[in-house]
Structure formats: C-alpha cells, structure tokens
Amino acid sequence: MEPDKLMDGISKEMSVALKAMGKAKTPEEKLMHSEIVKNLSESLGVFLSLMSEMALLEDDGEPIPF
Q1: Are 10 and 47 in contact (CB under 8 A)?
Q2: 33 and 17 Cβ atoms separated by less than 8 Å
Q3: Contact yes or no for 10/37 (Cβ under 8 A)
Q4: CA spacing 20 to 30 A to 9: which of 18, 28, 40, 45?
Q5: What pLDDT is attached to residue 65?
Q6: What value, to the nearest 5°, has the Cα angle with vertex 23 and ends 45 and 18?
Q7: Which of helix, strand or coil describes residue 17?
Q8: Model-level pTM greater than 0.70?
Q9: For 10-20, what is each residue's pLDDT tens digit?
Q10: What's the distance, Cα to Cα, between the start and end of the chain in Å?
Q11: CA 45: distance to chain centroid?
Q12: 13, 41 Cβ separation under 8 angstroms
C-alpha cells in the first residue's frame, strides 16, 4: 500500500472515531472510541517514525522507494 494512502486512511478512521466518541452517550461507549483513537494514533506514530528513519537512510539524496 502507498504511504500516502495509508496515512490518509488512518487519519480518516481517526476522524470517524472522534466524531463517534463525541456522539457517545455512555462512559463505556466513550471509552471504546477513545481506545480506538489511541490505537490509531499509536499506529500513525509508528508509521511516521518509520518514515523518518527511512528518510535518514537516503541514498545519494534520493529517498528509498517503498
């Protein structure tokens, strides 16, 4: 999968989960959605860390293709 599509997908899912959390009525529902947002945030963080590490491994000024 392309990195841009992956980041966009995670971001969109996070937005959906945040909206659902705002509409949640019970503490259990809010907790469930907050855990989803937390997991998506951590996933995005791992992906961005990997991208950062890959940028450091550039070969002759060109990024390594995915």
Answers
A1: yes
A2: yes
A3: no
A4: 28
A5: 62
A6: 10
A7: helix
A8: yes
A9: 999 999 999 99
A10: 9
A11: 6
A12: no
